[in-house]
Amino acid sequence: MAVDTSRPLDPAAGAKGARGRGGRVHKDGTPPPRGIRNALARHWYAWAMVAPVVVVIGLIIGYPLVRGLYLSLTDANEANVERTIGINHIPATYKTVGLDNFKAILEDQVFWDRLGWTVTWTVCCVALTFSIGLGLAVLLNRRFAGRTLYRSLLILPWAVPAFVSVFAWRLLYNEKNGILNKVLDGGGIDAVPWLNDPTMAKASVIAVNIWLGVPFMLVALLGGLQSIPGELYEAAEMDGASPWQRFRHITLPGLRSVSSTVILLSTIWTFNMFPVIFLLTRGGPGDATEILVTYAYRLSFVNSPRDFAGASAWGVLILLILMLFAVVYRRSLRKQGEVW
Amino acid sequence: MRRGIAATALVAAMALAATACGGDDGGSGGDKKSGGKLSGTVTYWDTSNEAEKGTYKELALGFAKKHPDVKVNYVNVPFGEALAKFKNAAGSGGSGAPDVLRTEVAWTQDLANIGYLAPLDGTPALANQSDYLPKALAGAKFKGKTYAVPQVIDTLGLFYNKKMLKEAGVQPPKDWTELKAAAKKIKEKTGKTGLYLRGDDAYWYLPFIYGEGGDLLDTGAKQVTIDDEPGVKAFAAARDLVTSKAAETDATDGWDNMQNAIKNGDVAMTINGPWAIEDTLAGKAFKDKSNLGVVPVPAGSKGQGAPQGGQNLTVYAGSKNLDASYAFAQYMSSPEVQAKTTEKLSLLPTRTSVYSNKSVAANPNVKFFKAAVDKAVERPWIPEGNSLFQAILVQFPNVLTGKTSPEKAAKSAGDAYRKLLKGDWK
User: Fold this and answer.
1) How far is residue A45's CA from residue A22's CA, in Å, rounded to a whole number?
2) How high is the mean pLDDT in each 10-residue block of chain A (340 residues)?
3) Any CB–CB contact under 8 A between B77 and chain A?
4) Is A197–B394 a contact, with Cβ atoms under 8 angstroms apart?
5) Distance between alpha carbon B128 and the CA centroid of its chain, in Å?
6) Chain B residues near residue A306 by CB distance under 8 angstroms
7) How many other C-beta atoms can be found within 10 angstroms of the C-beta atom of residue B192?
8) Closest chain B residue to the Cα of A175, Cα to Cα
9) pTM higher than 0.90 for the full model?
10) DSSP state of A82
11) Best exposed site among A101, A153, A166, B200 by fewest CB in 10 Å?
């Protein structure tokens, strides 16, 4: 995040002299300190504008990140960290244990089970959300009566706070008193154990997440669709391209820059989608729907004493997995000639 | 999806704001004034349920009658969130933490171990210590010191709909085999299910393992015992009730579904504690209050056993108003207050003297539960006591619905315990 934010600012800060400065330092052998001082003197205003952002990001992202990395290498828990309770000051007594936490996690079947389900959950959610979002976007991109009404209705789920929607879904899913089962009962179908059967529970959480995610896809892809010039379609039609061919060869490539971004973002969000799983099933039944983040939460907030070290190590692993994914994903896009 | 992040942040911010509001003026008051009069504000976090909180609020605010200079700031915190909320507030230097917290018995040792609680030995809070039931006091101790004042003691019993059992022509069952037989008759005669068994709370597993003569841990020998034979049999016994359709269960929303089922007369029996009496009686099946019967939790193959539970009052070590907090804790567990909670909510007093009180002695639910509490099994009073439920909770729903075998469930729980318990546990 920090890196992304600062990048666009860089060229802005040195827009005029960026190229020249770089070259001069190199050729003339000017000592770097002078170059920095020079840059500071010339662009002090830009630096001053950037400083608050850097400080805030450093405080709210950088510090917790570094602290988490450090804790993951210790055996810190709630009972041995430093704390001040009223007049009592209890000093820290935890120690560094190196990579023991990571070793323990990677040797534990729990991690691999959770990782397997987290990947399944992410792939299912993103693939379905994207397809449904794309389908609806293509539909809504045509001109027809009541288009605006449909658009606003479809964006509605996004306007409701996620936790409210999730609680509403939980009421719908209730096996004994939920509306879904009442409706099925009316049709003579037996009650479905929506959240009480491991497989059904998995399907149910995925359904809710798709419901929450489609509006975002819809809006992003609709925007992308509208930026594709209409002449392309007209020309293709003149050439006798079928609707499917037009979709395949104009719509999809035209959406590539939008879709690659939304897929990456949505993958990262879904991978760490804490509220849906936690509020809907608390990871249950048993631990069937527990994803990596909800398990890390369990370690650091539910078990006593709270295991800060273990939870941090889980957090670091989650971060590594996501970074790895982002790097691989960007590489594969670049190979297809996409500059992102 | 983006909303998700924003919403989480919003919830977190609101939670923070709420805690901040709750305790803002928590410790702002002074200490004892020169004349020995108490003053300032005492913030009290109560965890009682919807049916109980009105009574508790009234009682807590009554403290000001005795100490007019003390302002009581009553906050009702949902039971399920209270421990995490308290830890968040207490750990971060204490702004927003209450002065007095109603603490589930299993939280007491956990919080004392981290250093969040003030020891109460020798303070006014624990005056007249000999009046407390020894079992209740045992749950308030940690490493030789007393960290809590017992407020309420409880255990589980079998609640039943008298009319429905009579219709089916069965007596309240004494063990699980009888319960299965009774459930079958109830199904035949009334079409209703016999028992609602909570599958989303590990507390409901305890009567099964005690009934088989086992326990989660042997704290004396420092040994994990849940994966021994009784633990396996306990899972099997509970599963048998559900798979034979004698009982129904859920993996989510168990409390609401259980209460709805018994209150509407959809099931004949539930297993529950005194804290549920008031709520249960509000249901349409109990318009005639005498329709609710309570008997001991059915026995297993080795005998009858239910867990000892209850609520304590603990004082936050960082309270800026310790003297008033001690006095408040003492007041909230005083004989008058305990007698009132019994009268209004049928909760069990922790003081021996209160049981001789006329209205308490005449309450049939108290009569029953007192005998049950005397026999109840004490839980392991260790800091990890509350976390022991987590591992069972992961296994319980899957065992009940037949997705995991009892052997596998018991073994997984035992493994989880060995991971959780630090030190030389076997």
Assistant:
1) 20
2) 40 42 46 69 86 93 92 89 79 89 90 93 95 92 84 83 88 84 82 84 92 91 91 91 90 88 90 90 85 88 84 93 90 69
3) no
4) no
5) 25
6) 87
7) 17
8) B250
9) no
10) -
11) A153
